[in-house]
Design goal:
This protein has about 675 residues and is α+β, with helices and mostly antiparallel strands. The chain has 11 helices and 30 strands. The strands form 5 sheets. Strands 1-2-3-5-4 form a 5-stranded mixed barrel. Strands 7-8-9-11-10 form a 5-stranded mixed barrel. Strands 13-14-15-17-16 form a 5-stranded mixed β-barrel. A hairpin with a 4-residue loop joins strand 1 and strand 2 (about 55-60). Helix 8 (about 555-565) runs parallel beside helix 9 and helix 9 packs antiparallel against helix 11 (about 645-655). The longest helix has about 70 residues, at about 440-510.
Length: about 675
């Protein structure tokens, strides 16, 4: 136990000691993990200043690596070559950790740190980031960044890097097309993920830019044929500028110029008889000027630039116009669609001999893209203007413009064109032969859509009218039903009920006379029967007239029980809540319950009747059970002559889609069960 405690204490002490270890080498700071750099570890570093960005940021190197220092407040008295002792704490930095300086001591002055040779790959990987490096390359362009700073672009092999010089442009040596040796600080653009997006170099003064081989004067360069560019054995230094002479085919605001060569190509090489001849070559070239010069189509110009492969054919980059003189405007080459695609007119001014149909056009970042179809083959054309072209979809057109090979594919050792497009000089390069017919696909679709909308609206209107008619018919039928109920009620009241009242009065008068006991009993029984018939008639009339205040089925059964209540029979109601049902269905159920109750009182001589109402398994169950004498269900449920109660119950069940069942035994009562399926 004591031994393990000692180990834990030792581990804790060792961790604390390591956490507080002072960093004394640049490589230890540079390779510190990001999370550790946030812990503000102590730094005591002796190094030499290599580059001073400003009063707040300084870059230093020792024998191991380089790092960056941050001063608060600013420190303006440091210069490259100062030997300094820096004390402070670590900071995360944008790319790798550096030092927040708390104290600096200048120990002396010496030569700046030795610059190490670096390639473009060394710079792009961050291997020498924030260290002094020396690179060799060819000057491509030079421009002013602001009043006291310049930007020099240098090609290092096939790549071009930016050199930011903290000196004005007028003090720069002749750097364009010169081979340069540059001593600089390796730096670059850093994103929010602590990644190096692109490298660049920082130079304090033009003294750090050494011209190793001066550029040849432009007028001393030989005029070169476009067909001879970038061919094997045609030039000793392929990266130097070349001089081209020709007629301008097109000029665009972004500095692109297309030139038709006026220099004869070199003589064709001898081709063996069994070898295939060389494919025809385009006489034109694409040129990217460093500045947008006022070069007009038809002018004869001389231009110098750096030959590069920026597509299917050689082109000139970072070019400058030497001379230009007005000349005759060049004519477009008449080509078929197949010739447009085969690369023989890349960068040349052409006109298609077959018409093309405009299918669509839409806005792009620098103008409009137009989609055509000619003999089933799609063609893309680009129009560099801000206003939408006044063209109608479906028009048949003749197209002219600069042929551009957009992509190629390799077949064996030979690269062949895969897709070509046209770069239009202006809207006049589209000659409309015939406008689109009125019934274009778009208009036809619109017409079908409108017709479909009208049909849908018509169907909707018809549906609404049918619903209104249905509601009106229902209202008329309902009103007719009410009128018929009222008529029947009046007829019952004016005929049957009045006749029953008269009969009751006569029976009352007959009972006042002296009669035999048997006759008196018969009259009193008849009088009681007439009273019951009168009560039923009144109830029926009341039901027919009571249409303004419909009642639910439980309420209707409650009223029924009150109406048929008998002195010698007890009616017990066992009514549970049930879903609402239609009034006609409720009426039939109540009448069946009333018929069963009346039969139990009249024929079974029951002393107790139970009316049960509930919902079970999606059915409405209505049962009337009595304790009367019972009967044989196998012979009497279909009705005896002169008795229609059971038949009436069955007929009502069929009318509302219900089923009725009788369960009875002599001396054990009867149960009538009515099952009505409820809607889902």
């Amino acid at each position: 136990m004591r031994f393990s405690t000692l180990i834990l204490l030792f581990s804790f002490w060792l961790g604390q000691a390591m956490a507080q270890t002072t960093l004394t080498r640049a490589i230890d700071i540079r390779t510190l993990p990001y999370e550790r750099s946030l812990e503000k570890l102590p730094v005591d570093l002796t190094a030499t200043v290599g580059f001073v960005e400003s009063g707040s940021t300084v870059f230093v190197q020792d024998e191991t690596a380089g790092t960056h220092l941050h001063f608060r407040p600013f420190r303006n008295n440091l210069r490259p070559g100062d030997r300094v002792r820096i004390q402070g704490t670590t900071t995360a930095g944008l790319y790798f950790p550096g030092v927040d300086v708390t104290q600096v001591q200048v120990l002396g002055h010496e030569t700046p740190p030795v610059a190490v040779p670096a390639t473009y790959d060394d710079l792009s990987t961050g291997r020498y980031h924030y260290q002094r490096v020396v690179v060799v390359g060819l000057g491509r362009t030079l421009a002013a960044l602001d009043e006291n700073k310049s930007i020099l672009r240098v090609s290092m092999g096939s790549r071009v890097i930016e050199v930011r010089v903290d000196a004005p442009l007028d003090s720069a040596p002749g750097v364009i097309d010169s081979r340069l040796r540059i001593t600089a600080l390796a730096a670059g653009g850093i994103n929010d993920r602590r990644q190096l997006v692109f490298p660049y170099l920082r130079v304090a003064d033009w003294d750090d830019v050494e011209v190793m081989e001066a550029a040849a004067p432009p007028e001393s360069l030989p005029v070169t044929s476009v067909a001879a560019l970038l061919r094997f054995g045609e030039a000793d230094a392929l990266s130097h500028r070349v001089r081209i002479r020709g007629t301008v085919l097109a000029s665009f605001p972004d500095g692109r110029v297309f030139l038709r060569d006026s220099t004869p190509p070199p003589p064709p090489r001898e081709v063996p008889k069994d070898a295939s001849p060389e494919p025809p070559q385009s006489p034109s070239i694409a040129i990217q000027l460093t500045t947008a010069a006022s070069v007009m189509p038809g002018h004869r110009i001389e231009v110098i630039g750096f030959p590069i492969m920026a597509g299917f054919s050689a082109s000139l980059a970072d070019a400058q116009v030497l001379t230009q003189t007005p000349d005759t405007a060049p004519a477009a080459e008449q080509v078929m669609l197949k010739e447009l695609q085969d690369g023989s007119h890349d960068a040349d001014l052409v006109q298609l001999t077959t018409p093309a149909v405009l299918n669509d056009f839409f806005r792009t970042s620098d103008g409009y893209e137009l989609r055509f179809t000619s003999n089933g083959i799609p063609i893309r054309a680009f129009l560099l203007q801000t206003n939408a072209p006044d063209l109608e979809i479906g028009s048949s057109c003749l197209l002219a413009g600069i042929c551009l090979i957009e992509s190629s594919t390799d077949k064996g050792f030979r690269s062949q064109p895969e897709r070509a497009s046209l770069l239009l000089r202006n809207l006049q390069d589209i000659q409309v032969l015939s406008t689109a017919p009125f019934w274009t696909a778009r208009r036809l679709v619109m017409a079908i859509a409108i017709l479909g909308g009208v049909i849908l609206l018509t169907l909707f209107w018809i549906t609404q009218q049918r619903r209104q008619i249905s509601r009106l018919q229902s209202k008329i039928a309902h009103q007719a039903t009410l009128d018929e109920r009222q008529r029947i009620a009046r007829e019952f009241h004016d005929t049957l009920e009045q006749e029953l009242a008269g009969l009751s009065l006569r029976l009352d008068a007959a009972t006042t006379r002296p009669l035999e006991d048997k006759a008196r009993t018969l009259l009193e029984t008849s009088r009681s029967l007439v009273s019951r018939i009168q009560s039923e008639a009144r109830n029926l009339v009341s039901d027919l007239r009571d249409t303004e205040h419909p009642v639910t089925l439980p309420e209707s059964l409650q009223l029924m029980a009150e109406r048929v209540q008998h002195d010698q029979c007890e009616i017990v109601l066992d009514l549970h809540p049930v879903p609402a049902i239609a009034a006609p269905v409720a009426h039939h159920l109540r009448m069946m319950a009333q018929e069963a109750t009346t039969n139990a009182i009249k024929h079974a001589k029951a002393s107790r009747i139970t009316v049960h109402l509930a919902e079970s398994s999606g059915q409405l169950i209505l049962s009337i059970a009595d304790n009367g004498g019972g009967f044989d269900t196998s012979t009497q449920t279909h009705g005896k002559p002169g008795h229609f109660g059971c038949i009436g119950i069955r007929e009502r069940c069929r009318k509302i889609g219900a089923e009725a069942h009788w369960q009875s035994e002599h001396g054990k009562g009867t149960t009538v069960t009515i099952a009505l399926p409820l809607p889902a």
